[in-house]
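Q: Here's a chain of 302 amino acids. Please give me its 3D structure as C-alpha cells.
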Amino acid sequence: MQYTSARRTFFAANAISHRRFPFRLRATFHPATLNATYLLCFFLIITHIGRKIKRIAHNLILIKDNSDMLNVFLRAIILYFFLLVAMRLMGKRQMSEFQPFEFAITLVAADLACIPMSDNTIPIIYGIIPIFTLVILHNILTFAAIKSHRFRKLINGKPVILIDDGKIDCDILKKCGMTANDLLESLREQGYFKIGEIGYAVLETNGKVSVLQKFANAPVTNADLKISGGENALPYNVVVEGRFMGETFGYINPPLEKDLIVKTLEKENMRVRDVFLFSLDGNEAFIQSYDGRVVNTILSDK
C-alpha cells in the first residue's frame, strides 16, 4: 500500500506541470540517453506528419502527376528538421568553435542527409538512421572527452604557443601549417595590429588564436588606478520587438513590475508594441523604438 501511494504521489506531482517530468528524467538518466530518446520521438512525430500531408495531397489531387516531386518535397522537410534537431542535440557551439571530431561528424551528417533527400530510390530511413547513430557517437565521444584528459588530448589535440615572449616560433608555425600571413591575419581579427605589442600568442584546439599583450602595452584597469566602489552587472532586455520578455523578469532582483515599464514608456509617449528594444542596466534604461528614436532615461515610478 505504501508503494502504491508513493507512485500515485509521483504521477500526481508530475501531472500538475508538464515541465517537471523532463527534469526528473534528467536527474535519473544520462544526457546521451535523453538526447537519443528525444530524437527518436521527434523522428516518429515528423514521419507521422509527413505521411498525413502526403495522403491529404493525394486525396485532393494537388500533385497527382508529380508524385516524385511531392516525395522529394516531403523528404527535404523531414530531413531538414531531423538534421536541425540532431545539430541542436550536439550542442550550442558555433562552427568556428568546433573541435576536429565535431566538425567531422557535422560534415558526415550533412552528406548523409543529402543522399536520400535527392534520390527517391533510397529509403529515407537510410539517411535518418546514420544521422541518429552519429548523434549517439557524438555524445559518447563528448562524455569520454569530459571524463578522460588523455582521450580529450587524443581527439582534440593541445594548444601550442606561436609567439613566446615576443618571438614568433617559426618551427611551430610550420608544424601547424600556418604562414606568417595567417598568423598576422588571426592577430588582426583579435584587434592586434602591432606584432611588437604581443607577448604571447596561443593557437587553441578549435583553430583560434588567443593573445596576451606585453605588460607595457596592456590596457589600464580600474585596479591599476586604484578605483573602487563600482560594480558591473548584466543588463536585462525586458522588451524585445514589442513584447515583454517574461522569463527575464524572474532574474531581476529586486523584482520589477511591468507597470513600471509601461509608465516609463508613457512618459516618452511610447507603447510597448512601439519598442524595438528596452534594455535595463540597474535603474538606467535604454529604449529604441521601431521608428529609430533612441532614449536614455532613468527608471522611476514618479
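Q: Can you summarize the key feature?
A: The chain has three domains: 2-149, 160-217, 236-298.
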